[in-house]
């Protein structure tokens, strides 16, 4: 038998080693040791990690790569970023938004990031960013699963035409209902917006993803309303709360109630570690709050968690490289999740956690799944995070769409090795050898 592609001698995220993965007609046809078959192309993984592709369930593609237009965010603060977006928005053209988005997608592919949910601002009556990103979605479909979320960035009620524009965007084919309740003029308006947006999603049969309580204010509790509306409308498993940073400032007793409500309603959570810790806590002197929601507690309650990148080189964040391993690394540091099990779990937050939130079909490394995967220059998921591992090969539907040479340094040191492979520094558990 001949397959389209076989990846041989792979290590899988679940710890299996010496595994071959055979791909045929865009699907995974076999996952087992030593597949006795030929293929149009064979890749020797050489014991390195093969993972499902990376997933970013929270991004802002309409603003990405716009850093410096019309000027730099010199303070690096949220307030200057908001002001900059207000200056940039009138200058946007459909062509420019589309070109920056496509360029970002090129970068994403090189990093093995093959699924993205992007929030797109609908408060511009022209809806040019919506139209541009819908075109991008169609063009990148062969290599990236791109979801669009209708985001009334200036407030569903606060912006005069946001409600109408959100409906228009959904009519054009936007996939997800978004919102930003904590940005409304009052807490009451924020709660009303949650109700209205969830009712729209229920009526249209869509998913919900709200920027929720992205603040240090412990009284910003719109996630409670979101969990309630999920229950009331039967939206279980279809609703996500992004950021949830106010939870880091809430008292423990209230959070114990809140987490149970989220778990009951199957509301998922997307912390955005890189951005949350930069933007939050800015009014603090010392001690200074970390700015990220309560990730270990969310995990302990069985709540689906995925990590998002949020921004790359835009008015709010001057850094970023479409590297979800950087996101996972920051997440585990800030959440202080450094047990071996916790670190593997954090790797899953930028792979299968995001896939669950986005409701991606055919995701994974099981037989019958889409033949989408990434070969990483690392021994296992923890090492991948530690190294921000090189993506040796990125595969989409059984075809290699990006390759990067292994990172190996040459040395000129007397009596020392001629080369250094960072992946060779992976630790070994001496207690297992002793057993």
Set down the secondary structure blueprint.
Blueprint: E1 2-10, E2 19-24, E3 27-32, E4 38-44, E5 49-51, E6 54-59, H1 78-88, H2 94-110, E7 113-121, H3 128-140, E8 145-151, H4 162-172, E9 176-179, H5 187-204, E10 207-212, H6 222-233, E11 239-243, H7 252-265, E12 268-270, H8 273-279, H9 295-300, H10 324-334, H11 340-349, H12 352-358, E13 373-376, H13 381-387, E14 391-396, E15 399-403, E16 409-410, E17 419-420, H14 430-434
Parallel strand pairs: 1-4, 6-7, 7-8, 8-9, 9-10, 10-11, 11-12
Antiparallel strand pairs: 1-2, 2-3, 5-13, 13-14, 14-15, 16-17
Task: Report the count of strand segments.
Answer: 17
Outline, from the CA principal axes? globular
Q: Specify the helix fraction band.
A: 25-40%
CATH superfamily of the largest domain: Metal-dependent hydrolases
| Structural class by secondary-structure content | alpha/beta
Distance between the termini: 41 Å
Give the strand line-up of the largest sheet: 6-7-8-9-10-11-12
Structurally, how many domains make up the residues?
2
Task: Provide the gyration radius in Å.
Answer: 22 Å
Unreliable stretches (pLDDT < 50, length at least 5) are none
Major beta sheet summary? 7 strands, parallel
Q: Classify the beta-strand content into a percent band.
A: 15-25%
Integer average pLDDT: 96
Mind telling me which CATH architecture of the largest domain this is?
Alpha-Beta Barrel
Classified by CATH, the class of the largest domain is: Alpha Beta
Separate helix tally:
14
Per CATH, what is the topology of the largest domain?
Answer: TIM Barrel
């Amino acid at each position: 038998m001949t397959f389209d592609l076989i990846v041989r001698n792979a290590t899988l995220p679940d710890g299996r080693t010496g595994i071959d993965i055979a791909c045929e007609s865009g699907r995974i046809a076999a996952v087992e040791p030593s597949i006795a078959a030929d293929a149009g192309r064979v890749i020797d993984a050489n014991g390195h990690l093969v993972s499902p592709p990376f997933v970013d369930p929270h991004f802002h593609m309409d603003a990405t790569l716009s850093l410096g237009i019309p000027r730099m965010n010199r303070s690096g603060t949220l307030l200057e970023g908001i002001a900059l977006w207000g200056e940039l928005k009138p200058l946007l053209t459909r062509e420019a938004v589309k070109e920056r988005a496509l360029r970002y997608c090129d970068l994403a592919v090189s990093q093995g990031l093959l699924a993205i949910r992007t929030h797109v601002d609908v408060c511009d009556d022209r809806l040019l960013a919506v139209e541009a990103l819908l075109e991008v979605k169609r063009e990148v479909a062969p290599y990236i699963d791109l979801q669009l979320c209708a985001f009334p960035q200036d407030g569903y009620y606060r912006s005069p035409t946001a409600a109408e524009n959100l409906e228009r965007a959904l009519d054009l084919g936007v996939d997800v209902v978004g919102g930003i309740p904590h940005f409304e003029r009052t807490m009451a308006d924020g709660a009303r917006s949650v109700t209205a947006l969830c009712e729209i999603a229920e009526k249209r049969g869509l998913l919900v993803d709200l920027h929720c309580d992205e603040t240090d204010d412990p009284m910003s509790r719109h996630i409670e309303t979101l969990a309630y509306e999920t229950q009331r409308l039967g939206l279980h498993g279809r609703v996500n709360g992004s950021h949830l940073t106010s939870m880091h400032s809430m008292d423990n007793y209230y959070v114990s109630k809140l987490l149970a409500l989220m778990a009951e309603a199957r509301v998922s959570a997307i912390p955005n570690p890189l951005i949350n810790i930069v933007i939050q806590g800015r009014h603090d002197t010392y001690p200074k709050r970390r700015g990220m929601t309560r990730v270990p507690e969310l995990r302990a309650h069985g709540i689906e968690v995925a990590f998002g990148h949020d921004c790359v080189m835009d008015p709010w964040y001057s850094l970023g490289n479409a590297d979800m391993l950087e996101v996972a690394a920051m997440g585990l540091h800030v959440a202080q999740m450094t047990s071996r099990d916790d670190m593997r779990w954090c790797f899953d937050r930028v792979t299968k956690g995001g896939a669950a939130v986005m409701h991606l079909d055919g995701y994974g490394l099981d037989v019958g799944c889409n033949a989408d995967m990434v070969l990483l220059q690392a021994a296992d998921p923890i090492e991948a995070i530690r190294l921000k591992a090189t993506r040796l090969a990125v595969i989409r539907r059984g075809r290699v769409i990006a390759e990067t040479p292994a990172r190996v340094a040459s040395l000129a040191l007397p009596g020392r090795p001629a080369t250094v492979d960072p992946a060779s520094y992976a630790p070994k558990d001496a207690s297992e050898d002793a057993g």
